[in-house]
């Protein structure tokens, strides 16, 4: 079954946007995944096609109505049931590679993009939505967050990334390390040489250098990731045959 994303938005023309290009776009055209953008406004109940209203309790801004959002969610789920309903929100769980992997391993998702002040709390609860944030800052709408989440998931689907762009060694992989630096031709540029070892053809030495760089960069830049890596490695060491124990 194809991994399917349904987007609920007031701006369906923003999709697939950048996901229509490059590897994700090719995967989309080849049917490795599918995307349907729905206009929340199609589920409005009145002749003005209103989707929002003023907040109870007062305050600035508008809130997306629960009845309209619920109808949009129901219609998307009816087309392909059994998928998580995700509300993109700065109040949600932070998106990371583990969550992207988990979502990519499923059958897809329904993604609700908020606008204005956000969405009425009751429909978030009634639909058991998974709330996800892409970072500790506030965007004007959930669309760019949905595109970010989708990009992180779709590139992990079988066949989307070619062998040339393997996820095996990249940052935030199985070992939770950041990736080593890359170099290409020319071997000498602006008085800067490529590290000798990379020109040696000695595969074991190259692998060892890359591993050491990965560890150094992770330690320097992300002590939080390094601490987690060390804890995992400590625990995994006791399990014979575990890849992280090697
Ligand atoms: N009033 C909300 C708050 O303070 O939490 C912010 C609303 S924001 C202006 C409008 C919409 O953008 C949100 O409903 C959400 O869908 C989306 N959004 C904004 N920042 C986001 C983030 N960091 N991650 C995911 N979605 C975000």
Please count the helical segments: 7
Q: Which descriptor suits the 3D outline?
A: elongated
Q: Decide which structural class fits the backbone.
A: alpha/beta
Low-confidence stretches: 237-246
The biggest beta sheet is recorded as:
5 strands, parallel
Radius of gyration: 22 Å
Please provide the ordered H/E string of secondary-structure elements. EHEEEHEHEHEHEEHH
By CATH, the architecture of the largest domain is named 3-Layer(aba) Sandwich
Multimerization status = single chain
Q: What is the assigned CATH homologous superfamily of the largest domain? A: SPOUT methyltransferase, trefoil knot domain
β-strand number: 9
Query: What portion of residues belong to β-strands?
Result: 15-25%
Instruction: Assign the CATH class of the largest domain.
Output: Alpha Beta
Amount of helix: 25-40%
Q: How would you sum up this structure in a few lines?
A:
This protein has 246 residues and is α/β, with parallel strands linked by helices. Helices cover 33% and strands 17% of the residues.
What labels describe this entry?
246 residues, Alpha/beta knot, Trp Operon Repressor, Chain A, 5-stranded parallel beta sheet, binds S-adenosylmethionine
Topology:
Layout: E1 3-9, H1 22-29, E2 33-39, E3 52-53, E4 63-64, H2 66-79, E5 85-94, H3 97-104, E6 108-113, H4 121-126, E7 130-133, H5 143-154, E8 188-189, E9 192-193, H6 203-221, H7 223-236
Parallel strand pairs: 1-2, 1-6, 5-6, 5-7
Antiparallel strand pairs: 3-4, 8-9
Helix pairs in contact: 3-5, 6-7
The chain binds S-adenosylmethionine (SAM).
């Amino acid at each position: 079954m194809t991994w399917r994303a349904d987007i609920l938005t007031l701006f369906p023309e923003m999709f697939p946007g950048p996901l229509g290009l490059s590897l994700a776009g090719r995967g989309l055209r080849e049917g490795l995944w599918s995307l349907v953008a729905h206009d929340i406004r199609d589920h409005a109940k009145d002749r003005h096609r209103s989707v929002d209203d003023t907040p109870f309790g007062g305050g600035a801004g508008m809130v997306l109505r629960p009845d309209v959002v619920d109808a949009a969610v129901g219609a998307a789920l009816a087309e392909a049931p059994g998928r998580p309903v995700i509300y993109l929100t700065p109040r949600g769980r932070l998106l990371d590679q583990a969550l992207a992997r988990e979502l990519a391993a499923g059958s897809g998702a329904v993604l609700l993009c908020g606008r204005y002040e956000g969405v009425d709390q009751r429909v978030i609860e009634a639909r058991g939505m998974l709330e996800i944030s892409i970072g500790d800052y506030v965007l004007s709408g959930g669309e760019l967050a949905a595109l970010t989440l989708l990009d992180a998931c779709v590139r992990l689907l079988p066949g989307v990334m070619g062998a040339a762009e393997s996820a095996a060694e990249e940052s935030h992989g199985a070992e939770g390390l950041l990736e080593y630096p890359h170099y290409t031709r020319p071997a000498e540029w602006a008085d800067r040489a490529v590290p000798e070892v990379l020109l040696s053809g000695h595969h074991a030495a190259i692998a060892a250098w890359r591993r050491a760089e990965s560890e150094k960069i992770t330690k320097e830049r992300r002590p939080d990731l390094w601490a987690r890596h060390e804890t995992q490695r400590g625990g995994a060491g006791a399990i014979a045959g575990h890849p992280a124990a090697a």
